[in-house]
Design a protein that fits this description.
Number of strands: 14
Helix content: 10-25%
Structural class: alpha/beta
CATH architecture: 4-Layer Sandwich
CATH superfamily: Ribonuclease Z/Hydroxyacylglutathione hydrolase-like
Number of domains: 1
CATH class: Alpha Beta
Largest sheet: 7 strands, mixed
Strand order of the largest sheet: 3-4-5-6-7-8-9
Length: 258
């Protein structure tokens, strides 16, 4: 929010910032959009029967604001699901647990969350490339519940289909749910609206895994694609998945973003 003061604009702090995307989904945190800490991925809140559910938890630097944004939109946060253990998606977990908010993580994420090394978590490479400062430390923790790929999870009265989609990370999943008449896919960092992927030069990131697991999302009739960074797509999300699948079936490496 801006206030005109002579020829100068003065920023006025706003405590609650969010983007309502559908009747039941809001973007309540994002480093890209500067809604919250620059180290945060996109953090979504979903309205459930019991309150707000978070998809991903951010980097841990702005958890209070994320919770306030969600509370202002859909009520108190009653749970959070993470797509994978990378710091910008999972490091809000410990503070949520301190507030008695359960954190659900993919089963393959547990070893990384509890005892993953900086190399395994991609932090060594991130420090080398100045994505994280040299003194950054990952906070290990144990999730309250696990989500097994290939199963259905019920949380807050809402059902989520847990879909394995490795490639960006070895523990990566997507969450599919029916909301506001849409088949919504919370895709994390796996695929973006332009059909690009996110292949990293770090342990756990694998083009071979992408080729295998992209088929898990083909033919799902996905309407909305809620990405871990950048802009989501509220219609024709399956087109993005199919574009990525077609590229991964070809001879050349598909476009990749980080």
């Amino acid at each position: 929010m801006l206030d005109l003061d002579g020829s100068n604009y003065k920023a006025i702090p706003v405590m609650r910032l969010c983007m309502r995307l559908t009747d039941s989904i809001a973007l309540v945190g994002s480093g890209d959009a500067r809604l919250t800490d620059p180290y945060d991925c996109n953090i979504y809140a979903i309205k459930s029967q019991e309150g707000a559910l978070l998809i991903d938890t951010g980097g841990g630097g702005d958890t209070e604001l994320i919770l306030e944004n969600a509370r202002h939109t859909f009520g108190d946060v009653v749970g959070a699901l993470i797509t994978h253990a990378h710091a910008d998606h999972a490091q809000g977990g410990p503070e949520l647990q301190d507030r008695d908010i359960p954190v659900v993580a993919p089963t393959p994420s547990v070893p990384l969350l509890t005892e993953g090394t900086e190399t395994e978590l991609g932090i060594t490479a991130a420090k080398r490339d100045s994505v994280y400062p040299d003194d950054y430390e990952y906070s290990h923790y144990t999730p309250d519940q696990t989500a097994t790929p290939g199963s259905i999870l019920e949380l807050g009265g809402r059902q989520f289909d847990i879909v394995q989609i490795r490639g960006h990370a070895s523990d990566h999943v997507a969450y599919l749910t029916e909301v506001d008449g849409l088949t919504a896919c919370f895709i994390g960092d796996a695929v973006y609206p332009d059909g690009s992927i996110s292949l990293l030069n770090t342990p756990g990131s694998s083009l071979a895994a992408y080729r295998t697991d992209i088929e898990n999302l083909v033919g799902r009739g996905i309407d909305a694609l809620f990405t871990g960074h950048g802009l989501p797509r509220l219609r024709d999300g399956q087109d993005s998945i199919d574009q990525a699948a077609d590229a991964l079936a070809g001879m050349y490496t598909p476009p990749s973003r980080t």
